[in-house]
């Protein structure tokens, strides 16, 4: 038969005419319903199935599956029953076995229409305006038999709006949507069942789903797909895994909570990019050539300091150029430096066996401010001119090494002896240098010792 909008419905002849007409309108409506929310995982959607559902009806002459085409000629299915003339109806419709996966709390969304009993003449006392929803948990498919005593009642489903013969004439749609929860579930799957006790019902669609929080990256931590908890108010705590080249912030592990509605709540803790990497969006990218990042606590890569370089990506420090060095106490962000040049304008004054030395600072301090001076004393023979260290009997005022001021007094020298004094300027990288020492030197001969 042809209905409004040139859509074809194929029906069994014993169903009442109101169901046939209403089915065409409702199935069109069902195809344009709300899109699936991103947080839902669909286990069953009857209106999306294009082949026969083949659910179990008991008795066989109760619920009937109706096949049709929508406006796009897509096959669609609905189940209907309208045995209101006889009392004591007990018509069961059971879905196929539904595997639940990791879900513990299941949602069932029903879309249906229901006829107002007052609009049906001669059925008072036998007509009902509700039907019952049941479920049965099991680890496997139990076959086609319905054992009613095994099923647990979820709820009695009533229509918010029922329609009359007048609504059919005016083509008014009165589609009801009801959502119920099941849980917590512990077995691998379950059946749903619908019990008709004497109503005129068109079960337009059945959608079964559960909610989960979909995988996201937050604060450089990956939070995986997480199924919601078994209770409505439960929160599932999830620990995040740092993205590549990131690490957990000290004593602040990344965590989030998945709510019962499939929404991630405010994150706690975070991950930070490792040394040599900086954050870019939800990833850590390596520092480019000529840049570095020495610590995960730094936010961004920095350009290499003066007289240093990095010739590869992902550097945590920059190497010094030839003849330049970095002292062990130098932070990686300071420039590489070199030893100072020799002191200038070295002069002396002899008083018998005491010598006073004085000099000017070096022309080049090597780029550092920690310049000090050290004195090397050598005693040289008269005959061969060979020199040896002066030994520990010599006194220095204020001291031999670590001099801050540019003068020193050397005491307790031998009388009538030849000495050479070397004055060297040093800084924090002098001992790292493999270059020749730079110093100022003076040779003297002591006079007669004090009586």
UniProtKB/TrEMBL annotation:
<protein>
    <recommendedName>
        <fullName>receptor protein-tyrosine kinase</fullName>
        <ecNumber>2.7.10.1</ecNumber>
    </recommendedName>
</protein>
<dbReference type="InterPro" id="IPR008979">
    <property type="entry name" value="Galactose-bd-like_sf"/>
</dbReference>
<keyword id="KW-0067">ATP-binding</keyword>
<dbReference type="GO" id="GO:0030425">
    <property type="term" value="C:dendrite"/>
</dbReference>
<feature type="domain" description="Fibronectin type-III">
    <location>
        <begin position="339"/>
        <end position="449"/>
    </location>
</feature>
<dbReference type="GO" id="GO:0007411">
    <property type="term" value="P:axon guidance"/>
</dbReference>
<dbReference type="InterPro" id="IPR011641">
    <property type="entry name" value="Tyr-kin_ephrin_A/B_rcpt-like"/>
</dbReference>
<keyword id="KW-1133">Transmembrane helix</keyword>
<keyword id="KW-0418">Kinase</keyword>
<keyword id="KW-0597">Phosphoprotein</keyword>
<dbReference type="InterPro" id="IPR036116">
    <property type="entry name" value="FN3_sf"/>
</dbReference>
<dbReference type="Pfam" id="PF01404">
    <property type="entry name" value="Ephrin_lbd"/>
</dbReference>
<keyword id="KW-0808">Transferase</keyword>
<keyword id="KW-0677">Repeat</keyword>
<keyword id="KW-0547">Nucleotide-binding</keyword>
<keyword id="KW-0732">Signal</keyword>
<keyword id="KW-0675">Receptor</keyword>
<dbReference type="InterPro" id="IPR001090">
    <property type="entry name" value="Ephrin_rcpt_lig-bd_dom"/>
</dbReference>
<dbReference type="InterPro" id="IPR034283">
    <property type="entry name" value="EphA7_rcpt_lig-bd"/>
</dbReference>
<dbReference type="InterPro" id="IPR003961">
    <property type="entry name" value="FN3_dom"/>
</dbReference>
<dbReference type="InterPro" id="IPR050449">
    <property type="entry name" value="Ephrin_rcpt_TKs"/>
</dbReference>
<dbReference type="Pfam" id="PF25599">
    <property type="entry name" value="Ephrin_CRD"/>
</dbReference>
<dbReference type="InterPro" id="IPR013783">
    <property type="entry name" value="Ig-like_fold"/>
</dbReference>
<keyword id="KW-0812">Transmembrane</keyword>
<dbReference type="GO" id="GO:0005005">
    <property type="term" value="F:transmembrane-ephrin receptor activity"/>
</dbReference>
<feature type="signal peptide">
    <location>
        <begin position="1"/>
        <end position="35"/>
    </location>
</feature>
<dbReference type="InterPro" id="IPR001426">
    <property type="entry name" value="Tyr_kinase_rcpt_V_CS"/>
</dbReference>
<feature type="domain" description="Eph LBD">
    <location>
        <begin position="40"/>
        <end position="218"/>
    </location>
</feature>
<dbReference type="GO" id="GO:0005886">
    <property type="term" value="C:plasma membrane"/>
</dbReference>
<dbReference type="Pfam" id="PF07699">
    <property type="entry name" value="Ephrin_rec_like"/>
</dbReference>
<keyword id="KW-0472">Membrane</keyword>
<dbReference type="Pfam" id="PF00041">
    <property type="entry name" value="fn3"/>
</dbReference>
<dbReference type="GO" id="GO:0005524">
    <property type="term" value="F:ATP binding"/>
</dbReference>
<keyword id="KW-0829">Tyrosine-protein kinase</keyword>
<keyword id="KW-0325">Glycoprotein</keyword>
């Amino acid at each position: 038969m042809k209905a409004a909008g040139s859509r074809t419905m194929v029906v069994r002849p014993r169903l009442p005419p109101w169901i046939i007409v209403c089915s065409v309108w409702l199935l069109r409506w069902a195809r344009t319903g709300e899109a699936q929310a991103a947080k839902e995982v669909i286990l069953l959607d009857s209106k999306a199935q294009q082949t026969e559902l083949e659910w179990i009806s008991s008795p066989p002459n109760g619920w009937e599956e109706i096949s049709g085409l929508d406006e796009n000629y897509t096959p669609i299915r609905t189940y209907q029953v309208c045995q209101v003339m006889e009392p004591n109806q007990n018509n069961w419709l059971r879905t196929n076995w539904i595997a639940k996966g990791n879900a513990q709390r299941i949602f069932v969304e029903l879309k249906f229409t229901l006829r107002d009993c007052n609009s049906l003449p001669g059925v008072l006392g036998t007509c009902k305006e509700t039907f019952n929803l049941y479920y049965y948990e099991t680890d496997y498919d139990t076959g086609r038999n319905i054992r009613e005593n095994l099923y647990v009642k979820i709820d009695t489903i009533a229509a918010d709006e029922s329609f009359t013969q007048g609504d059919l004439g005016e083509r008014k749609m009165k589609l009801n949507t009801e959502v119920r929860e099941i849980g917590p579930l512990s077995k691998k799957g379950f059946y749903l069942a619908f019990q008709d006790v004497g109503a005129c019902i068109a079960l337009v669609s059945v959608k079964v789903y559960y909610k989960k929080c979909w995988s996201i990256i937050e604060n450089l931590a990956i939070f995986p797909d997480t199924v919601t908890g078994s209770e409505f108010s439960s929160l599932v705590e999830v620990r995040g895994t740092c993205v590549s080249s990131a690490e957990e912030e000290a004593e602040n592990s990344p965590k989030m909570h998945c709510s019962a509605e499939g929404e991630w709540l405010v994150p706690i803790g975070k991950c930070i990019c490792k040394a040599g990497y900086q954050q870019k969006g939800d990833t850590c990218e390596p520092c480019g050539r000529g840049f570095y990042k020495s610590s995960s606590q730094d936010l961004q890569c920095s350009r290499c300091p003066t007289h240093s370089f990095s010739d590869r990506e992902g550097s945590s420090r920059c190497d010094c150029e030839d003849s330049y060095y970095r002292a062990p106490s130098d932070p990686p962000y300071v420039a590489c430096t070199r030893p100072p040049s020799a002191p200038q304008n070295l002069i002396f004054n002899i008083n018998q066996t005491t010598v006073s030395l004085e000099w000017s600072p070096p022309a080049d301090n090597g780029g550092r401010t920690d310049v000090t001076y050290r004195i090397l004393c050598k005693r040289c023979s008269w005959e061969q001119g060979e020199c040896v260290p002066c030994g520990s009997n010599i006194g220095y005022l204020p001291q031999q090494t670590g001099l801050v001021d540019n003068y020193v007094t050397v005491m307790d020298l031998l009388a009538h002896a030849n000495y050479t004094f070397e004055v060297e300027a040093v800084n924090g990288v002098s001992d790292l240098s493999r270059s020749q020492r730079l110093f100022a030197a003076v040779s003297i001969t002591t006079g007669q010792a004090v009586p």
